Every structure is written in C-alpha cells, then in structure tokens.
Amino acid sequence: MYAMKYMNKQKCIERDEVRNVFRELQIMQGLEHPFLVNLWYSFQDEEDMFMVVDLLLGGDLRYHLQQNVHFTEGAVKLYICELALALEYLQRYHIIHRDIKPDNILLDEHAPEVFQVYLDGGPGYSYPVDWWSLGVTAYELLRGWRPYEIHSATPIDEILNMFKVERVHYSSTWCKGMVVLLKKLLTKDPECRLSSLRDIQSVPYLADMNWDAVFEKALMPGFVPNKGRLNCDPTFELEEMILESKPLHKKKKRLAKNRSRDGTKDSCPLNGHLQQCLETVRKEFIIFNREKLRRQQGQGSQLLDTDSQAGGQAQSKLQDGCNNNLLTHTCTRGCSS
C-alpha cells in the first residue's frame, strides 16, 4: 500500500508552481533512504500530476504531541540518531531540508521515523540550519514546547533580540548527556554547532548507539503508535474532500465527459496561453517507476558481473603492467551501475 499525492495542473500553472513540482519530482527520484518518505511512481493524466510515495500510518509527531504523548529520553535519542542518518544522506546530495519540525516527521506503524524531502535552501542557508531544527524538534518532543517562543508573525528584530538576551532552559530531570547534546545542536553560531553525522557520533551520550542497527531499523522504539486507531485528525481530511472542486473519485466520469464535449462544436476551448502551458507540462513531466528502475539496475549489475569474469580471464593472459579497464568496457555496453 502507498500514499498518493495529486496536484491539479491548471492550478499549478495559475499559481506558478509547476517549476517547484518538477524540481521536487527530480530531487525525489534521485533519493532512497530508510528514513525518508521515498517516491515510488510519478505519472499524469489530463488534469493532474501524481506522486506515489511510502505510506506511513503512524501519524506525524505534531499529532502525537497534541495528543499529550510523553516522549522519553530514550525515544528522542533514537529519533535524533535516525534523523541524523537522513540528514547526512541529504547533505551528500547537497540538499538542505529547511523545514524539520514535528509536523514533517512521520511514523510508520512500527515507528521508525522518516521526514518529507523539500527543496534545497535559499541564499544565506547552509547545512547547519537543519541540525539547529533537529535540536529544536528534540527539545519540543521532550518538553512539550519549543526553546524559543517564535511564531511566523514574530518580527525579525524581535527574534534577533530574543537570541541575544534569552537563555534556553533545560529540565533538571533530563540526564546530563541529553542536555549537552541539545546545547551543541542549539548553539547559535553555525560554525560551532554540531552539523554532521560525524559530529553527532562523537558526542559521549551517543557512544553506546549501534548505528548499523539504527539504519536497519532493528532497535525497539520508545513509542509505537496505536495500530487500532487513525493517527491523524479526520476533520481536516474530510474538509479537504468536501472542498475539493475536482475530487479524484469522480475523475473517470469527468474526463469522459470532457473528451465527449471536446468532440462537439459546443466545446469551450481554454485560452491559448493556458492550453500552451498545459501542453508544455504534459511534455516535460517526468514519469518515474522505481520498481522498473531497480530491475534495470539489477540487469546492469548482472552484465557487469558476467563481463568482469570474462575480462578477468582475459586479463590473466596479459603481460604485467598492461591496463585493462574492465569497467569502461562494460559501461559502453549499457551497464547502468
């Protein structure tokens, strides 16, 4: 089972969002990690662009905070490690998340954590901003509120002054190791902040972590969502369905009606510019199938193995010092590895 996101082409054009959608697709097609919401398929029809991704039924951490779930230090410690692995992976691909918060951290039914990938950062941002956000998120999970009282409407000068005069208060009930880790993540100077997996792994509090087990989701999480209930607010989902002007469940009839109407003299064609934009979206949309890609990569690997064995036998007959570049040879025959 998967989750599916669909975006109306005409609305995207009117809101000038097509480039962002294409960029998101392009980025997600190149990523795959245990702690990311991975893209599996992308496709289109006349009306919409579709993205099919991992289905996470455990809800997001914001929902569980609002349900007054108490996250233990052990649970938060594991979250930090899992998200650190994901951040390190994104940095390898030169991606800045910029929006790490409980709302964007989703749980599956067994509770390994993943977060949704967004576009890389704008001017003035670099990777340390994500590690700051990780610290803020961990603090909020432990305490129930953020280290600074900042909202979207808070003026920038007020925020800057807050950072100058206010100190973060750490609970006396937290262990010293957790407090030291949070302080290093919430260091205001990005040059001095923990901002890589290596930095995180060097913290004494995490010295006992089995990082291979974290990556393989082999550690028991401190919090597991209730499988017998819906881990989200159904009101919001119902409102979306009610307000949707072109609901998905009526698409088949709607498209058939449109095609029938387009074949009559009474049809009202879209204005020329919009029609041209829709045609451009149709042509430039990137269709993606991760399963098919994996099969192709598997076939490419088999080609590489077979040719390497043959090349190895041939190489043994060559004189010492000759350079037989087997990788280049096999790649010219379509090796996709």
Automatic annotation (TrEMBL):
Gene3D superfamilies reported in the protein's UniProt record: Phosphorylase Kinase, domain 1 (3.30.200.20), Transferase(Phosphotransferase) domain 1 (1.10.510.10)
PROSITE patterns: PROTEIN_KINASE_DOM, PROTEIN_KINASE_ST
One of the protein's GO biological processes: G protein-coupled receptor signaling pathway
Transmembrane segments annotated in the record for this chain: none
Chain segments carrying region Disordered: 297-319
EC number(s) per entry: 2.7.11.1
Cofactor(s) needed: Mg(2+)
Protein name stated in the entry: non-specific serine/threonine protein kinase
